[in-house]
Design a protein that fits this description.
The complex is a heterodimer of chains A (about 220) and B (about 450).
Chain A: H1 2-6, E1 24-25, E2 33-34, H2 35-55, H3 61-97, H4 102-116, H5 126-136, E3 142-147, H6 152-159, E4 164-166, E5 171-175, E6 180-183, E7 186-191, E8 194-208, E9 211-216
Parallel strand pairs in A: 3-4, 3-5
Antiparallel strand pairs in A: 1-2, 5-9, 6-7, 7-8, 8-9
Helix pairs in contact in A: 2-3
Chain B: H1 2-23, H2 30-55, H3 62-82, H4 101-123, H5 129-145, H6 169-181, H7 190-208, H8 214-225, H9 228-233, H10 240-260, H11 263-277, H12 283-301, H13 305-332, H14 350-360, E1 363-366, H15 367-377, H16 379-384, H17 386-408, H18 412-416, H19 421-426, H20 429-438
Classes of the chains: A alpha+beta (about 220), B mainly alpha (about 450).
């Protein structure tokens, strides 16, 4: 509890590969301030003062460097400690995951990211849908994929080389697509506020509402 | 699995070490040479694989390729013997170093980061989007199809994946790992970035060691290990970290050339820029920055017009020659350097994202502030020493090149949506660490 007060959780999210978000100090008169900016500006100002002392011969070079490296360490520490706190949290998760199979590690990691980023479970359920496909469609089948942008990459990667994802096929993998509706054996493509009929399809296998395999009729 | 992994590493390190001996014959410490051998060996093997798959359009036959590698190793050994270059194995004599408590503490902190990294790599299979859609996808397709598909109508045309115009350095190295393992195992693929990460740390330490104390050199290595984004990339398979490694090597040899003026160093810088260009197209910005530095030094500072032309030519040849197979394929299949439509217009909104990426986000802790402090407090020394001055100018030109790209071209999209901006600055982190740290070095320790 005390740790939660002192440190900020920075769990692994889908965008962690692109950037690490700032840690903001809340409740400050001028609005939330990034700790990176606060400690960085502190280092710039303190460094400048020490440098002026050195420049006007009030400090020897050895002492100047020692103070400067001390300041760098001091300014580095707040975010480093927070980084370590998050790393230790990851460590405890990793130690648990080590004994899992590779596929379980994959599911755990994806579900954790899905859950922490509040994506709604569509990523987390992916692997059970892949297993569902594997159990119901023979390998080598040509399939068409209807899903949301961002999920297609996972299908292409994990279904290869067992299934050929093509632009048009008799079988459709229907997995929470944004702009497609399946109703009364008809598949519609929604463009703007109009629904265009794509064709007549029957549900071959259904896993849940929003996850099924369709076959062209 | 262990033996297959060893075979994979031997196939990289042995030719890499032999080429290093033949070409650079450097007197650097053993671990630094090992880090260099990784860079050279990986570039060599991926260029050979590229030539087989793309230029010769052949299917991979592992037995024949192993025979080729053995013949290549024998030839390199023969050349070393012929040139009377003694190949010394690392000394087994161990001189107990003088114990410096601060160096020991920092070393333990670095080891701690490496343990955390190792556990992340073992417990977290690749899931990041670009890795699955591009880097690992290309390696996976190649592993199962054993050849490149040249049919423009095929789903996996020219290897498939997100961008067919991307260089093949990183996917081919992953492919080579899986080919050695005999199975597609992307969790094991995590090891590639870890090895590059270690190579970056080792290279940085041994580059700084002649200029700074062990403790200060290790201190900068520790700063690098605790930058959150760099650490995350060390077990997530993107190519940015590999690019940053080649860029660090290219910078180091450019620095040596500025300091000592040996043509060999300039050639090395060019070749490492070439390796970087085989990893990501972004490296072209850094290679141009390198050329500008060479011309400024010889033309404006030394006033040697012919030398500027000659050195610039050597540098450009060193970049272009290893890349010929890739450039040939780029031209033949009309592959561009950029992913976006051509067009020039100003996108001022990018400035805010750049400010966030460098000074507000936590991707690099407060690293870019430290770079500014290092430049500011060492400015008098930098002004007096051309090698330092030009090295800083190189870093600034790299930044200007990237920022210009984001401000004036359609690349601005990846800056505005934050998908690539911080990752691009990440490639400059190791080289900026080398530069910021070496600027603190005493003048008498240099040269």
């Amino acid at each position: 509890m005390l740790l939660k007060l002192l440190f900020t959780d920075l769990p692994e999210l889908f965008y962690t590969i692109n950037l690490t978000p700032p840690i903001l100090l809340q409740g400050i008169k001028f609005g939330p301030l990034s700790i990176t900016l606060i400690t960085g500006v502190f280092l710039l100002l303190a460094g400048l003062i020490v440098f002026l002392f050195f420049h006007f011969k009030k400090l020897g070079e050895k002492k100047f460097r020692a103070i400067l490296f001390g300041l760098i360490t001091l300014a580095w520490l707040p975010l480093y400690l927070n980084f370590t706190y998050n790393n230790l949290y990851d460590l405890s998760e990793n130690l648990k995951a080590l004994k899992f199979s590779d596929s379980s590690k994959r599911v755990l990691r994806l579900c954790n990211m899905d859950n922490r980023q509040n994506v709604g479970g569509v990523y987390c359920r992916l692997f059970s849908f892949f297993t569902f496909i594997k159990n119901n469609l023979p390998a080598g089948t040509e399939v068409e994929l209807l899903t949301s942008p961002g999920l297609d990459g996972y299908f292409n990667y994990y279904l290869y080389p067992n299934y050929n994802i093509v632009k048009q096929a008799d079988y459709i993998l229907f997995y929470y697509p944004n702009s497609y509706i399946y109703k009364d054996n008809i598949l519609y493509h929604r463009q703007g506020d109009k629904d265009f009929v794509m064709g007549k399809y029957k549900i071959l296998f259904a896993k849940s509402n929003g996850e099924f395999i369709l076959k062209k009729q | 699995m262990t033996i297959k992994l060893i075979l994979f590493f031997l196939s990289i390190f042995i030719p890499g070490a032999l080429v290093e001996k033949l070409w650079l014959n450097s007197r650097e410490p053993f671990l630094f040479k090992l880090a260099l051998a990784l860079g050279i060996g990986a570039a060599l093997i991926t260029l050979e694989l590229f030539s087989i798959f793309f230029v010769l359009k052949l299917k991979m036959n592992l037995a024949i390729f192993y025979l080729f590698l053995i013949a290549e190793t024998a030839l390199l050994l023969y050349l070393i013997i012929k040139n009377q270059l003694n190949f010394k194995f690392p000394s087994l004599k161990f001189n107990f170093p003088k114990i410096n408590l601060s160096a020991v503490i920092i070393f333990i902190l670095i080891l701690f980061q490496l343990v955390l990294l190792g556990l992340n790599a073992l417990a977290r299979p690749p899931l990041a989007y670009d890795n699955l859609t591009m880097w690992q996808y290309k390696a996976k397709v190649l592993f199962y199809e054993n050849q490149i598909n040249f049919d423009p109508g095929a789903a996996n045309y020219l290897g498939g994946g997100g961008h067919i115009n991307y260089p093949w350095g990183a996917p081919l190295l992953s492919y080579w790992l899986y080919a050695n393992l005999g199975e597609f195992n992307d969790l094991a693929g995590n090891i590639i970035n870890i090895i590059y990460y270690l190579a970056i740390l080792i290279t940085l330490y041994y580059f700084l060691k002649p200029y700074l104390s062990s403790a200060i050199s290790l201190f900068f290595v520790w700063l690098l290990t605790t930058m959150p984004l760099l650490f995350y990339h060390a077990y997530n398979g993107y190519a940015d970290l590999i690019l940053s490694y080649y860029l660090l090597l290219a910078f180091i040899f450019l620095f040596y050339w500025l300091e000592r003026g040996e043509a060999k160093q300039l050639l090395a810088a060019g070749i490492f820029f070439s390796c970087a260009l085989f990893v990501k197209n972004d490296a072209s910005v850094f290679a141009i920055a390198g050329l500008i530095i060479i011309l400024i030094k010889l033309f404006l500072i030394d006033k040697r017009f012919m030398a500027a032309i000659k050195s610039g030519g050597i540098y450009l040849l060193a970049i272009a020659l290893p890349l010929l197979p890739w450039l040939f394929i780029k031209i033949k299949y009309h592959l561009t350097f950029s992913n976006v439509e051509p067009g020039i217009s100003y996108h001022g909104e990018v400035w805010q994202n750049i400010y966030w990426a460098l000074f507000l986000n936590n991707s690099f802790n407060i690293w870019w502030f430290i770079v500014i402090v290092s430049l500011a407090v060492n400015i008098m020394k930098i002004k007096k020493q051309n090698d330092l001055l030009l090295s800083w100018l190189f870093l600034i030109l790299c930044f200007i090149g990237l920022i210009t790209l984001y401000l004036f071209t359609e690349e601005y999209r990846v800056a505005v949506d934050n998908t690539a901006l911080s990752r691009t600055f990440l490639t400059l982190a190791p080289l900026s660490a080398a530069l910021a740290a070496v600027s603190f070095g005493r003048a008498e320790n240099r040269g």
